[in-house]
Amino acid sequence: MNKQELIRELSHTMDLPQKTVRTTLDAFFEEIVEVLEGGENYTQTGFGTFRTEVCDERISYNPAIKKKMLLPKKRKIKFRPSAKLKERINE
Amino acid sequence: MSNFLTPGRLAERLSWKTELDKEDCARFSSELFDIIIRELKKDDTFSIFGFGTFRKSFVPLSTARNPQTGETINVPPHYRVKFSPAGKVAERINAEYADLTPIILETEERVKEGLLLKAERYIMTIQAEPEPVEPEKPEVPEKIEEASESDETENRIEEIVEKTVFTEAPEKEELPEEESAEASEECSEEPTQDEFKTEDEPDFEFQKEDRGFMKLILLSLLALVLILGIGWLIFRNIGNDGVTEIVVSQAAEEVSEPPAAPEEPAAVEEPITPAAPVEAASEALPESSYSIESGDSFSLLAQRRWGNIYLWPYLYKRNSSNFPDPDLVRPGDSIVIPPEPDRTRDQIRIEDSIIYAYKRYRDLIEEQSGSPRNPNRELSADYVLLGGERLYPDFLERRKDELRTDDIRRVQRLGE
């Protein structure tokens, strides 16, 4: 399913024009990313939690150049599915 | 304020930005994730452009252990949902550390240093404590002179001498053992010689043992006199048939020392084995065989036997048929140690052997192009040439047709 199909589906269930759905969808994800950037978590009930985490620098092996590399400190998004999501996925 | 953003609060914020009201926004998000879940059940992945991808993966049945009770639990097969953010989102999240880049760590190639490097360091440690070396070094040239003075025929005869000595020795050994049981008085008479003999076995492994090097000098002088005497005797009796007889009697003199002290048989056996090859090598006489011990290498042996590490290609060339890789000798392998080459007389042969060892390394690098040891081999090849240059200045200049130009350049840089 691509974004267009998602929008069509949403506009159908929400009974809203596609244009509105599109802007709302963009604003919605933009909002989540902004919140995560600010260091907050976002929990969608029944789906899961998005949060960010700072990973320390680490040494890893790059098989392409056959050398060890020091990967720097990095901030990552972590997603933890909720119990409900797991349940529904495994139905 | 907690740092948890709930759908309710998000809907509130969303309603400011869009024309929808708060309730619609809340419904919107729940509908959206409902669709995502529905799609994930159907399909393995669900990606939203500009946000990220949800991926469903299958986890097969596995067993786990409860660390508290120690019981094993079967984890049923299930699906797991993973999320990976879109590149742009990941960049925005990581903006704080965006200036940091991965650093390629130089691998420690020199950790497995080649035998040549090891040997070079060995020389350094020897030179650091010059005492045990100094008495040795002057002797070697003397012996070479002797050897070069004497004819080839004499060499051969002395070869026979050596052989007879070796063959005679064990026989002689056995007899005194029996005698010693009866005549312990004899032993008490000659404890000084006994001491001498037992002391001198470790000394022959010179340069490693520094103890008793004064005794070593005395002994080697004695040995010199003996050898000179043998030489003279042989020289005089050269035409005669009785050569071997005299030789034997002479040999008996030499051997008379060890059998005199056979209180412990083990102590007697020892002097013959280690002493014999060393004598042979230092006198530049016959080829002797040697069994590799752990830690040995051609270069180390060349250093130990001939006092010159750069001669190792000469040793290697003699044994090249059995050892295709100069770096690869295993404990227990037996190698042939040729008589010590004379630096001026055997120059061509030594140079040939150096070229030979160099070419061997080059061939190995080409044959096993993926081998992790190739950097070491390249280094070893350079050191071989460097050794040649140190033995004979302008060796590189003379032999440059046979070598690769960039190797020559590297070696010259090494030499500086």
Write a concise synopsis of the structure shown.
The complex is a heterodimer of chains A (91) and B (416). By secondary structure, chain A is α+β, with helices and mostly antiparallel strands.
Give structural notes.
The complex is a heterodimer of chains A (91) and B (416). Chain A is of the alpha+beta class and 91 residues long. Chain A has two domains: 1-40; 41-91, HU Protein, Chain A (Irregular). Chain A contains three helices and five strands, in the order H-H-E-E-E-E-E-H. Chain A has helices at residues 3-14, 18-37, 83-89, and strands spanning 41-44, 48-55, 58-62, 67-71, 74-81. In chain A, the strands form two sheets. Chain A has a three-stranded antiparallel beta sheet with strand order 1-2-5. Chain A has a two-stranded antiparallel sheet with strand order 3-4. In chain A, strand 3 and strand 4 (67-71) form a beta hairpin. By secondary structure, chain B is mainly alpha-helical. Chain B folds into three domains: 7-97, HU Protein, Chain A, CATH 4.10.520; 150-286, no CATH class; 289-416, no CATH class. Chain B contains 17 helices and nine strands. In chain B, the strands form three sheets. A three-stranded antiparallel beta sheet of chain B has the order 2-3-6. In chain B, strands 4-5 form a two-stranded antiparallel sheet. In chain B, strand 2 (45-48) and strand 3 form a beta hairpin. Chain B is elongated, with a radius of gyration of 38 Å. Residues 132-150, 163-208 and 241-284 of chain B have low confidence and may be disordered. At the A-B interface, helix 1, helix 2, strand 1, strand 2 and strand 4 of A face strand 1, helix 1, helix 2, strand 3 and strand 6 of B. Strand 1 (41-44) of chain A pairs parallel with strand 1 (4-5) of chain B, so a sheet runs across the interface.
